[in-house]
Specification:
- The protein is an alpha/beta fold and about 210 residues long.
- The chain contains 4 helices and 8 strands, in the order E-H-E-E-E-E-H-E-H-E-H-E.
- The strands form 2 sheets. Strands 5-2-1-6-7-8 form a 6-stranded parallel sheet.
- Helix 3 packs parallel to helix 4.
- The model has no long low-confidence stretch (mean pLDDT about 95).
Length: about 210
C-alpha cells in the first residue's frame, strides 16, 4: 500500500514502559515494535500517539476489587471488564513512553483511561462506547481520512481503536509488524476476526 504522507496518519497506540518487557503488564516482545514504529514514523507527516493514563486505584485494576485476581472478568456499569494488574499510573515511569520511541514527530498525544470509573482501550472512545476522546474531531478538522495503526496490544487497544476508526468512517489499516499481542484466552484470533469484519485492512509491513 502506498503511503500518502500529507494525507495519511500513523496512529501509535500505547508504546509505554508498563506494556514492554519488565513492565507490570508486559506484552511479550513488546519492545520489538519500537524500531518498526520509528522507521515508519519518518515516512508520515502526521503522527498521533496514545497514552494509557490511569489514576491510582483505577476501577479496572484487580487491586480495586478485593478478592479478585488479574485477568478475571467482572461486570461494570458499561458491561464486561477485564481486571488488570496496576499499570500506567499517572506520573509513574511505567506510564512513560518507551525511552527509545521517537516521539518528536507527534502532533498530538491522546491520554485515555484517566476517568477512574471507566476503562478506555480505544483511541476514540471510553469502554462505554459513547464517551469520546476527541480524536475523531481532530482528524476530521485536519482532513485526515486514512489511518495506519501500530502499537500495543494488537488484541486490545489496537483492535478497539481500529474497529472504532472504521465505525467512524475512516479508512483503517493495522501494520502487523508494528504490533504485538497479549493473546489472552484466544483474544488475538477474536480481535483479527472482528477487525476483518469491520473492514480493517491487515498489512504485514510498509516497506
Amino acid at each position: 500500500m502506498q503511503i500518502r504522507p500529507d494525507d495519511d496518519l500513523l496512529l501509535v497506540i500505547d508504546v509505554q514502559n508498563d506494556f514492554c518487557p519488565g513492565g507490570s503488564l508486559a506484552v511479550g516482545d513488546g519492545d520489538a515494535v519500537v524500531p518498526v514504529i520509528n522507521r515508519l514514523s519518518g515516512r508520515f507527516n502526521h503522527v498521533v500517539l496514545t497514552q494509557d493514563w490511569h489514576p491510582a486505584g483505577h476501577s479496572s485494576f484487580a487491586t480495586a476489587h478485593p478478592g479478585s485476581a488479574p485477568f478475571q472478568a467482572v461486570t461494570m456499569s458499561y458491561g464486561e471488564q477485564t481486571l488488570w494488574p496496576d499499570h500506567c499510573v499517572q506520573g509513574t515511569s511505567g506510564a512513560a513512553f518507551h525511552p527509545q520511541l521517537a516521539t518528536e514527530r507527534a502532533e498530538l498525544v491522546i491520554r485515555k483511561g484517566f476517568r477512574g470509573e471507566i476503562d478506555s482501550y480505544s483511541a476514540f472512545y471510553e469502554n462505554d462506547r459513547r464517551t469520546p476522546t476527541g480524536l475523531a474531531g481532530y482528524l476530521r478538522d485536519r482532513s485526515l481520512q486514512r489511518l495506519f495503526l501500530v502499537g500495543l496490544a494488537t488484541d486490545y487497544c489496537v483492535h478497539y481503536s481500529a474497529v472504532d476508526a472504521r465505525r467512524l468512517g475512516f479508512e483503517t489499516a493495522v501494520v502487523e509488524s508494528g504490533c504485538r499481542a497479549i493473546d489472552l484466552a484466544g483474544s488475538l484470533t477474536s480481535a483479527w476476526s472482528a477487525m476483518h469484519q469491520a473492514g480493517v485492512q491487515r498489512i504485514g509491513d510498509l516497506c
